[in-house]
Amino acid sequence: MTTNVIVSSSAIDTGILSIARNALVEGVTKTGVVIENYSSAIASVFDRKDTEGRIIAKWYDLDGKEAKGIKLEKSLFANTLMDRDPKFIKSIDADGKRTHTATVDTYWMRVKIASGYVPKGKLKGSNDVDAKTATELKTMINRILGAEEAGQECHASTILKALKEQYVILTGEAYNANK
Fold first, then answer.
1. Measuring CA to CA, how many Å separate 61 from each of 67, 76, 78, 119, 123?
2. What b/e readout covers 78-101, taking b as 16+ CB neighbours within 10 angstroms?
3. What confidence tens digit (pLDDT) does each residue in 79-137 have?
4. Domain ranges in the chain?
5. Residue 106, strand partner residues
6. Considering only CA atoms, which of 140, 147, 131, 145 is closest in space to residue 163?
7. Cα–chain-centroid distance for residue 32?
8. Are residues 92 and 86 in contact, defined by beta-carbon separation less than 8 angstroms?
């Protein structure tokens, strides 16, 4: 007596999906830790400290000669990514010099943020209600100002002054369109 075994392709696919899903989850859950570790290493090397070991300047705030090591590290970071995967190469000039993609800059920004950097245009503590509300107020103010500049009539113009006053209350700063 012969027994035929029929293997369902969906059973195989489920196994493949499970393996792929688990690999992705493993990588994703470690990404934050890896970025934190790299950020800590950069901070330990490049943060400026006084004679008692207190931080007087974070690595991402350094400029000029003080930032030379940081610029070199970012270059090494970008080159390592481009060596690892060509998808990080935006272009190669006639001399063979590679330019990295914006994705490399995004990863570098994540490292900076992990060290405490607050990106321009973001309010510090953006996870709290007041900061989010202030950001939304600024968006509303900008929308009204944009409409007025475009010559559009909008009823919201009547509350523009009040919105700016509320922005000052929440942030402690006067509204500034360039900030």
1. 8, 19, 20, 12, 17
2. beebbeeeeebbeeeeeeeeeebe
3. 999 999 999 999 999 999 999 999 999 989 999 988 988 877 655 544 577 778 888 88
4. 10-114, 129-171
5. none
6. 140
7. 12
8. no
